[in-house]
Amino acid sequence: MGHAAIVGIGHSRFGRAPDKQLHELAWQAIRQALQDAGVTQRDIQFLVVGNAGGWSSELLPAVVVGEYAGLTPVGSMRVEAACASGSAALRAAATAVESGKADIALAVGVEKMTESTTMQIVEMIGRAGSFFWEFEHFGLTFPGYYAMYATAYMHEYRAKEEDLAAVAVKNHYYASLNPYAHFQKQITIEDVMKSRYVAWPLKLYDCSPQTDGAAAVVVASEEMAKKLTDTPIWIRAQGVATGTANLSKRDNFLSLEPAVLAAEQAYKQVGIERSQSYKYFDVAEVHDCFTIAEIIAYEDLGFVERGQGYALAREGETYKGGRIPVNLDGGLKAKGHPIAATGVSMAVELTKQLRQQNPESRQADIKKGLAVAHNIGGTGHYAYVTIFSLNKDVRFT
Amino acid sequence: MGHAAIVGIGHSRFGRAPDKQLHELAWQAIRQALQDAGVTQRDIQFLVVGNAGGWSSELLPAVVVGEYAGLTPVGSMRVEAACASGSAALRAAATAVESGKADIALAVGVEKMTESTTMQIVEMIGRAGSFFWEFEHFGLTFPGYYAMYATAYMHEYRAKEEDLAAVAVKNHYYASLNPYAHFQKQITIEDVMKSRYVAWPLKLYDCSPQTDGAAAVVVASEEMAKKLTDTPIWIRAQGVATGTANLSKRDNFLSLEPAVLAAEQAYKQVGIERSQSYKYFDVAEVHDCFTIAEIIAYEDLGFVERGQGYALAREGETYKGGRIPVNLDGGLKAKGHPIAATGVSMAVELTKQLRQQNPESRQADIKKGLAVAHNIGGTGHYAYVTIFSLNKDVRFT
């Protein structure tokens, strides 16, 4: 099996983009990624487009993106894994390279959500469970799914709404330092607590917004990566697992089991001990579609013991300089969450972190050369955990 | 790079399945494929679901299929490449194996089209070009796209409507021998000629139907394949290319350029000379969404010179025993075309052909141990050409 590295990154501004179509958003990210890699469209041998779709009119986004980006006749496919579609696209591009089918591949994640109304989006994302059973019969929406997790978590561990709010405050703070983020303003615990309930105990400021945006990465083989850059960022390991479509079949609502499984798979490939995992990473990106999701992610990734995730948030240990810095780009919560762009955006951010290209205010100290991305689809329906490294062969025993 | 082989196949009956949901159709195929491979759900390490969707209510089909098939928590993703989604799923499963990420992967293609009305399907498939430009502004539907190719072809080469009809007659003949096919009746040239025009010169009997169905294959690494079966069918080579989203940007309407490119890529990997390609294969599956598409496929694959494809059809040279037998399962035209199931169905059929498991009436003579599948998405928006072999290392120089 060959190795694959990120050698170029691109990112559109996240936010509402009523003046741009899906392929225009994608091109913003692709153009940057090609330039950053020092390659042209002719060098790309495979294109993977992550797009969940449904809210925009383009039913077959990959060919439209490909043509607009000048990539035709490069072979392509679209991949979808709900909100983890971006990580699935990264995986498909990486395996194309690792299998020897391509020397250079391009993964792009793009979503034009605001083409639909909020109610349409609520309806569509609500189907991210089992449409025929839980959505159709019980009418649960997506905030409702995560509210069940928040309720169970708060009951079990005596966490407070203010603890959830601390995640939103941190992520808005870092978004205010990130010009690509949807939200540019800092908020306070009080702001969160005063915001209206969406699904108790989750309030408006506990929720990620509806966002348009795109992110892209150029992925290259070992031989090609070494020609193109002095600092390839290796896609060192990836774990992937799924949860039941029906939430009623879950054992508990304190953990997303597939995230634990995906992390274990990835950690095993690098020799990382889960109970001490925070010691291995300089920085992490986790899937904070709701504030409770970030807290549970801390625990599912082994950054802290079960029931202690909210304390990590409360004590500021996931800010820069803390035990493990998380979402220094603002996270889904405040950078925005254009569904399929998110996983690729995580890869872009961690590449910048490992390259030490961020402004100091939101640049992690890079001492270990290792970073982890945790990308969830639905309510733990999909989990992709990806480890990025400066050292191709890094392995602990 | 490792090798990947098909070690298990499954196929639902194609047709209208008002009593079955998407995941039930998928399970019919998956269950057979697991049994045929002699494995259980626990052996599957990665699941790829090909599904174009849009016409059925399940927006996130892969997790629902995974749960229903007892595959949770196996990691998964959905892939889409329009009508070539099945070949894209096969590719994603094969690269997972070839890259060393999985020892055994499962690719399933499934579509529940008849949940929507014909007009809804016409509207959605019409978007298989560029929605914002050609579909929205000119109102072209999918038969209209291919009618432009048929018109250009007939004008350039003096082919007749009866020549197109010959393809439909052949494919209905073989469908009548295939219990999994949507249509079970033979038809005559006169039947085709008397059927009503959909988009001149294409008549109803020139068109593939709206079909529900699923197909599945178990893909294994070399080591695992040799443990599981005496006759692994190797996924020897695959080419993939794309065409412009907008048909107005095409150079001509006599050929699907990406099919030529994809074939060249695949042929190069095996050392096949394009101008003599029919000599290398025992049997082929080609994408006959409309009769004209099969004729152009003969030429794009190099089975015959440009402008001679219709003669091949007229002279019966693509029946069993002819120059190159094509679509001995009935093809899209008569077996049916449940969009994402089609590419996987082609892999299932060619596996059966190479294993010599078909009834004699539609079993090709297997002398060379090589077969080719040509799967198109949209109107040449995607092209996937896959070569299957009995000999893992077969290569011509």
UniProtKB/TrEMBL annotation, chains A, B:
Gene3D superfamilies: 3.40.47.10
Highest taxon of the lineage: Archaea
Keywords on record: Isoprene biosynthesis
SUPFAM superfamilies registered for this protein in UniProt: Thiolase-like
GO molecular function: acyltransferase activity, transferring groups other than amino-acyl groups
Organism of origin: Caldiarchaeum subterraneum
Entry annotated with the keyword Signal: no
Domain Thiolase N-terminal: 6-223
TM ranges: none
Domain Thiolase C-terminal: 239-389
Protein name: Thiolase domain-containing protein
